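[job 4471] stage=fold_predict status=RUNNING
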Amino acid sequence: MDERKRDSMIAYLRHRMEEFGIRPEDLAAALATESLAKKAARYRSATGDSWDGNGEMPQWLKQAISAGQSIEHFELAQKPAPAPQPKKQVDWSNDPFAGTPLARPNSR
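[job 4471] inference complete, writing structure tokens
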């Protein structure tokens, strides 16, 4: 988006916020609440639908389960997966086969 379009959009949004009595603090609070709700989700679909596991099961999840998908498929991980460990470096300087056909991958 070019700078003029961006400035025009910001001016438009500010005008509409003023027209409806929305303060920037109100917008920030609404966005913060929305992000907290997403963090509390326990199940999420590929399209972004989410459910915290409380209350009635949403229609998108009911349909997926009735189609044969397991509920665990949609469950969000509680803890992030552990970071992969770096591979150990091998010291080939003392390799007795260095330079021989045994050290070459496609030797015959």
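[job 4471] summary: The beta strands are 43-44, 50-51.
[job 4471] exit 0
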